[in-house]
Each structure stands twice: as C-alpha cells, then as structure tokens.
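Comment thread on ticket #2218

A.B. wrote:
> Attaching the input chain for the structure job we discussed in standup.
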Amino acid sequence: MRRKFTSLTCSLLLLLASASAQNTALSFDGSTNEVTTTAMVVPTSGDFTVEFWANVPTLLNTPTSLHEFVSQGQGTTNGFYIGYDQSSGNLRCGDAFQATSTPCPVGKWFHLALVNSGGTASLYINDVLMKTQTGYSISATGSNFTIGNQFSPFTEFINGSIDELRVWNIARTAAQIKAGMFGVAPSTTGLVAYYNFNEGSGTTVGNSTSTTGLNGTIVGTPTWVSSPIQTGNNALNLDGVANHIIAQPNAAYDGFTSGTVEAWINPTTLNATNMDIVGLRTDGTTATKFSFHVSSTTIGMWNGSTFNTIPATISTGVWTHLAFVTNGTSTDVYQGNTSGTNTLIGTISEAYGTATGTNLTIGYSKNTGAPGDNEFFNGSIDEVRIWNTALTATQITNNMLGTANGLETGLVAQFSFDEGIAAGTNTGLTTAFDNTANNNHGDMGTSFALTGPTSNFVVSPLSVILPVTFQSFTAVARDGQAYLQWQTGLEENSKVFIIERSTDGVHYGDIGSVAAAGTSHTLKTYNYTDATPATGTNYYRIKELDLDNRATYSSIRAVQFSGAGAARVAWSSVASGQAEITLLPGSNELYQVIDINGRKLRQGQLSGGKLYLSGMASGVYIINITTQSGSQINTRILVK
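C.D. wrote:
> Ran it. Output below, let me know if you need it in another format.
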C-alpha cells in the first residue's frame, strides 16, 4: 500500500520515552489447550478471509492424525476448520476443501490465508497461491469459533504457536494479503476479528477490532512465547560457514541479457578467498547465468565459463553498496556508501552467461559439493535486487539509500530481510521474502542461529523509502533543543509520524509523534522540537505508520549537543489558542511572552516550572525565560 503524508498546521504533541509494546504469540501443546469464544466469528454466508501465522514443530499422530488451528460449526454439513492431517502431511481447509495437496510447513513460521470468494476457496501460503476449490461453503450452525482445536465433540488439538489471527467478512486480494501479512490496523474495512496475542499473560485473548463479544477464553495452559512476526528495518547476518539462502528457479530470471544486480554488504572478514554475494546458478552443477564475488582486493564475476575481476577496496565493518550493470557485452561496477556517494570503479569484460532455470543464491556460490568450495559470505547483507534492465548511474544513486517497494518496473527479485526482531529471538523464521510480485521466496535452511547479533536478522543501515514525495528532512540545534522539520508532497493512507532518536546510530527509541491527515496531494510541512536531547550526537529519523500499521522510515539526521545539565524548554500547542510550556528543570523562573514583532504581551513567573497560555491568537511567539543562574532561554512556539 502506498503511503503519503500530511501537515498538522502547527500542533505538536510531545511524548517522552514511549515504551514499545511486547510482541507475543500463543503456543499450544497438542493435547488440552485451546481458546474458545461465544460467537460464530467466521461469516457463514458470503465472502470471507481467515489468516494467521503458525509454527508447527512436528506433525503429531496422537491422539489422532488430525489437528486444527481454528474451527467453527459442526461435522455433519461442511464444518469449517483449518488444520493438518499427519497421515498425508497436508493442510485441510474444512469439509468442503480437505484435499488441498499442500504440505503443512514444519519447524518454521509460515503465513496461511484462506479466502472464500463467491464459493471458490483459495489457499495461500506465504502469500503464494497453493490451491483453489470451487463449490465451497461452511455450515451456519454448530460450535462457536475455536482456536487450537476442532469443534465439539472432536478433540483435534493443535501443537505449535499461532500469531496474528484475523477474520474478515470480505475476500482479500492476493495483493492485500501480501501487504498485510505482518499486521493491519484494527479499523481496516472488513476486519471482523483480530487476535494479535500480545497480552503476554492472563486467560483472555482480546479482539482488537471494535466488534464486541468476540474475546477468547483460554482453556488449559497454553504458553505465551516471544514472537518474531513483525516488520522491522533489518538486514541479514551470515556466519561465513554455512549460512546461505536459495530461491527456486523462476521464469523471470531468464531471458534478459542486460540487467542490474544490487546489494548492500558489510563484511566481517575479507581475505584472498572470494566470498559470494549473489548469483543465479544451480546447486550441484556448473549452470550459471552470473554470480558476483568479493575478496580483500578484488570484485569478480563468474558467468558459467569465465571469471574476471577488477581491483577494489572494500572495508570490513562498513556498509558498502555494490551495483553490477550489464549491457550485454560487459559489466560496470559501482561502489556506494551510506552518505549517498556512488562511483563507477571499473568494468568487468564479460556479460551474463546463457544458463536458464537456475536457482537464486545469496551468500553461497560454487555449489559443486567440494569441501570448502562454497564461498560462504561472512558478514551482513541487505536489499538484494535483480533487475531485467540496465539502470543508469543516476537511477542507482537515487534509490540505493532506501528499500524498494517491490512494484518497480523491471524489478524481478528483491530481498530486504525486514521481517523479525533485529538481534532478537527469531527461531523458526527461515523464509527470506521476495517483495516483488514473483513471490519467489528464499529458503534460509536450518543453519542460521536466529538469536543474538550474528547469524540472524540485524539492524539495517538503510532507511525504508517512504512511498511518498518526501521533499526534505532537516534537524538543527538551537537554544539547547533539536528542531526537526520535514516536508512531503504526496500522502495517502498515512496515520502518524513517530519521531525516533538514537545516541549511537543503531538503537532507536520513540520520543514523540505527530498526527498525519491520511491523504494529501499538496506540499505539507511538519515540525517537531526535541526539548531534551542527550549530550553528544543525537541521531533522528521519522517512522511513518500507515492505517494498516505498516511502518516506513525516513533518512537519518545527526545533531550535536554539548553541555550536560543545561536547562531546556518543552512545549506543545494543546488546543486552539492554547499552549503549555515546561522548563526542565524549573520552578518559579521569570518569563516573558513576545510576539514576532517584538512586542511584550505577557510576563510573570512560572509555577512549578510550567506556563499555561490561553486566549492566544494563532501564530508564532517567543518565550523568554530567565533561569536561576541568570541565563536567558528564548524558545519559539507555534500556537494553532
């Protein structure tokens, strides 16, 4: 979904140290645990969609081979359920859609969506359509909606974890399913029930929508577990020993002789041995269209018959952007950095090979089975893109500092690794999602640790490109405060801007927010004041949340402050004609209110360090405060 932004014509809301919410799932033991409701949640007539994330450690055959994630109705006429049959290993989607011929994924998190549209059921796994069934319907009577077990009188308990369970009274499209996999706004049209399992304790599973009477009651003792199901701004760290990603052959990878391959890399080590970045080559054979490699002194390309290199200096512990542009006869190599500089560093005298039907490999290359011959990449990789067109230097420069949205013309593969918790516990999250419409996701296998700062998802160096006309973002220091301003030229479905601050450029926390209007096609200007910056370097970025709760990030700005302990002023325009000003720290200091023409309008003493203004005309004012030490603080405020 495209995001576009608005203006608050002058109202600022100051929030200090906003804590992030926990992200949990509910884990069932396969024998006695379930969640019951007192309503038929899934619509029994008309279109609907049911979707959730699940992680099943193994397929059970006790006490029966049948186990259900969710259910509703009764077993005599088209009962509704989604589960698996251990005897076949396949998923089941109700009495009217038992033969899905779709294996239930085991030992990994996966997203499942069942859509009923006009009596045709469609089963999606990880936003890929797996199977359809005509003549689909479900019973209108029987047991209420149940999570983790079959409807009465059957006992088909599920084993494993469930998260982000949503029930809709509309048939969601494939594009909507893809866009909302990791979360949507509870107010989204058509959303009947939304169980995000973020309670973390207790015996109630809450419904996040406005529909009443749909909360669930926990039966038995399922456990709350940490969940990695969320969208972050991440990269992927590989250990240089076994970690790699393989995506299956795809027709979109064949047929083009001119193209562009991009990736951000941050090597942990470099030596004379080549390490593979990305390639189109088939495991166990020599069939190769291309693969690109890096060593301590060179960058190289293999096309199935020839390997050529150019001299290059790549630093360890530093993020570097590489782009390989092939024109049909040779390949230009561009090297960029996080400051936005992008330079042509050489030309490799070869083009793509002729192999077709190859795998896409990341961090892993010469797959011929010889020990030590796999050229595993040691370090972090982000934003891997393959294009079927040769990009210009300007196009590369303009787009390298952000995350593509997957819809760009000519983009046939894009892996941004934005799922999961950076350096957190991501056990079972072993799918690298392809953000393009090809949905040719990569398999991370079982070698990743998926916990801690290595062999796991880690913090990305990139901003996610705001899918808006984001005109500017500035941050300046003035009077001991950081003044942030950003402009947008186009907004759609935007909900709120969250201002994030970091003192190390890596770990960010929320410090405030500004509301967004949702839709705007004109230039909008936003302002925010950080009244209490830390001593030293403060890094700022803007996180925009859509109405579907998906996040995108601005570029990063740094502001330097010195002099710990200086008094600072926080303020907000709380209502029309009103403002609240706070001196930190403060007591009964003298103040003056001055208009933009220099006229003194009010004066007096603060009360407990606070000043409340009302009956003010809309406009800009200067608040002059004399501190206990006799110093003057002048702060500009904006009253709406």
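A.B. wrote:
> Thanks. Noting for the ticket: Confidence is low (pLDDT under 50) at residues 1-21.
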